[in-house]
Amino acid sequence: MSRAKGNVAEELAVKYLYDNGYEIIERNFYSRFGEIDIIAFKDETLHFVEVKSGEDYEKAIQNITPTKLLRLIKTGDVYMKKNGTNIDYEYDALVVVEDQVWFIENITL
After folding, report:
1. Based on CB atoms within 10 Å of each CB, which residue in 9, 11, 33, 106 is the most buried?
2. Max Cα separation, the chain?
3. Rounded CA gap, 31 and 52, in Å?
4. Three-class SS state of 94
5. What Rg do the C-alpha atoms of the chain give, in angstroms?
């Protein structure tokens, strides 16, 4: 997928989160382990959100591999330590296909 399509998906993801009461804290947080697309806050919980898009839901969600998930978790740990944050948090996925959005909470369970 091109970076332009990824940017469009990420914009739709941000709009979805905002419309559903999430406060967007940061976008595209990088560490040496990887990137977190969106960091959001709602109901006293920090959400590390991985945005995926594709031709259909199945192809998009399959791009969250065990390796990608491990990188996401390590990057979340870096964010928490860097910011001295000690609150509840979770790792979520937001799948965008055309203009449909699916939000999957707690992808590490």
Report:
1. 9
2. 39
3. 19
4. strand
5. 13
The enclosing H or E element of 60 equals helix 57-61
Cα-based torsion angle of the residue sequence 94, 97, 98, 101 in order, rounded to the nearest 10 degrees? -40
Copy the structure tokens of residue 14.
């941000």
- The ranges assigned to domains in the chain are 3-104
Q: Per-residue pLDDT tens for 1-51? A: 466 667 888 999 999 999 999 999 999 999 999 999 999 999 999 999 999
Global pTM reads 0.92
Q: What is the DSSP letter of 105?
A: -
> Residue 29, SS3?
strand
Closest Cα partner for 69 from 45, 101, 91, 38?
Answer: 91
Tokens found for residue 11? 């914009």
CATH 1.20.1270.10 for domain 3-104: no
* Residue type, position 42, single letter: K
Is residue 41 within 8 A of residue 22, CB to CB? The reply is: yes
pLDDT at 51: 96
